[in-house]
Write a structure and sequence with these properties.
5-stranded antiparallel β-sheet, 6 helices, 2 domains, 4-stranded antiparallel β-sheet, alpha+beta, Immunoglobulin-like
Length: 321
């Protein structure tokens, strides 16, 4: 048996490319393979029977029908292969997802030809996710593949099959691509209460700065350490939910979400999941929060970009970015 390296080199030579592929991938004719389908094999067998019968009984109309159908099959071969040949394939940006959710991998199929390309099957070989798209002349379309993301970290696009049986279904043309693209998978969040205000600053202390009380600005969820005079007692009587009044000029609290704050019995993945839940909760509450994990510390901040930076640090913990 050949070594794995030799088998991989042979496979790359056979398929006509070396993964991963960067930029737009053009399906040259050498990369498009075609074989008859089961229906095509039955069609060929029927042509053989017609030809033998026409020779045996010297049927001129039989010869005409046989050669007409054979010519139709040859035209089908050309159109089936042409549906994929010279098609451009490129990977679009995939938005990050949480572990356990499907990653939406996007491929852009572009045609520079003057003919349309209907019924192109796009299948992710690793998961079996697939979709069927049509590409207009000199146009492009996006193929969306919902691929399960079971673990955090980078999820590569992997090998993807493009297949066409248009127009007769007698032949199957296919090609493989493997774009150099990947999707970031955040840890699966475990939701829980945020760290207590009484904890030390190095382990999740909330540090309240000067609070303004000039103008009432609204309500937010109660946080441990909020002054009793700011509690919304009327709202508590109506909804049984403890809320805190906010005023213009009130500086945001800062929270440091620290790896060391979690119990010693938590494993690495559970710690990352709990920190992920804290990041989501802190952003939802509008707090300024930072993140401290072994080998990485992110200064307090808030907003979509800060949230994405914290979640990315958790997703790539222990991995090469």
């Amino acid at each position: 048996m050949a070594p794995p390296v030799e088998r991989a080199a042979l496979r790359n030579w056979f398929y006509g490319f070396t993964p991963p592929e960067h930029g737009e991938i053009v399906l040259r004719h050498r990369r498009v393979y075609i074989l008859p389908t089961r229906l095509g094999l039955l069609f060929g067998g029927a042509l053989g029977v017609l030809l033998v019968g026409s020779i045996n009984y010297a049927l001129a109309l039989g010869f005409a029908l046989t050669f007409f159908l054979a010519g139709l099959g040859i035209v089908g071969i050309v159109h089936t292969a042409r549906n994929l040949a010279q098609l451009g394939v490129s990977a679009a940006r995939a938005d990050p997802v949480f572990a356990g959710e499907p990653a939406q991998l996007r491929l852009v199929l572009a045609s520079r030809a003057r003919h349309d390309r209907p019924q192109i099957l796009v299948r992710h070989l690793g998961s079996g996710a697939q979709c069927v798209v049509d590409v207009t002349p000199h146009g492009s379309t996006e193929a969306l593949l919902a691929v399960p993301a079971s673990r955090r970290g980078w999820l590569p696009y992997g090998r993807i099959l493009l297949e066409s049986r248009f127009p007769l279904g007698l032949f199957r043309a296919w090609s493989h691509v493997e774009p150099a693209a990947r999707c970031l998978v955040w840890p699966r969040p475990i939701h829980g209460p945020l760290p207590l205000a009484q904890a030390p600053a190095s382990a999740g202390t909330t540090r309240a700065h000067a609070r303004g009380t000039e103008d009432y600005a609204g309500l937010r969820s109660y946080q441990r350490g909020d002054p009793p005079r700011h509690l919304a007692w009327k709202a508590l009587a109506r909804s049984d939910e403890l809320l805190t009044k906010q005023f213009n000029g009130e500086a945001a609290a800062e929270l440091v979400l620290d790896w060391a704050l979690l119990p010693d019995g938590c494993g690495v993945e559970e710690r990352l999941s709990r920190l992920c839940g804290w990041v989501i909760a802190a952003e939802r509450e509008g707090l300024r929060y930072g993140l401290r994990i072994p080998g990485r510390e992110i200064a307090p901040g808030r907003g979509a970009a800060h949230r994405a930076e914290c979640l990315a640090a958790l997703a790539l913990y222990g991995e090469a970015a």
